[in-house]
Amino acid sequence: MEQFIQSKISLKFSFLIVFGVAVLFCLVLNSSIDGSNIKIASVIGQENPNLPVHLKIPSINIDANVEYVGFTLSGIMDVPKGFANVAWFNLGPRPGEVGSSVIDGHSGYKNNKPAVFDNLYKLQKGDEIYIENSNGTIITFVVSGIKSYDSESDASSVFASNDGKSHLNLITCAGSWNEILQSHSKRLVVFTDKEIK
What is the CATH number of the domain that holds 13? Predict the structure, then answer.
């Protein structure tokens, strides 16, 4: 009986972990950011040349610095401190590694300031995205799809993949702004696959 209870607790804990990953991208991008767990790529990149420092998307004129983020105190993926920067979730795969690497960025920023992912919705299947590492290596990804999620939707596919391939998924806010919740109603996700040469 004790083993049964422990296995039920383990299953419950596993579910909570999976559920947590599924809702990680339900970000409050317009909330105040203290930057306590944010590290700027140019500093860490000097220590490890395989880390990303720039995101470039020529079709929508993006050339952004990459910040490194983990979880906020409330357990969700943090966001970039700068509205012109993007943030890589550094607890997941690096861009180019097997699995789904995740980068988020602001859109619809406070006081109508232009933000890095304002035009992310304009990307189309086949568009190319480039990640530059601190050693100058450039990895190319190709857009494979775009999907809009309600803030309560299961989003586990954004953070996890098991096909043995390398993906880079970009996230930003979309939909209407809810003043009470201080959040947008939807999240826009661009799915990409590493280009195979």
Answer: 2.40.260.10
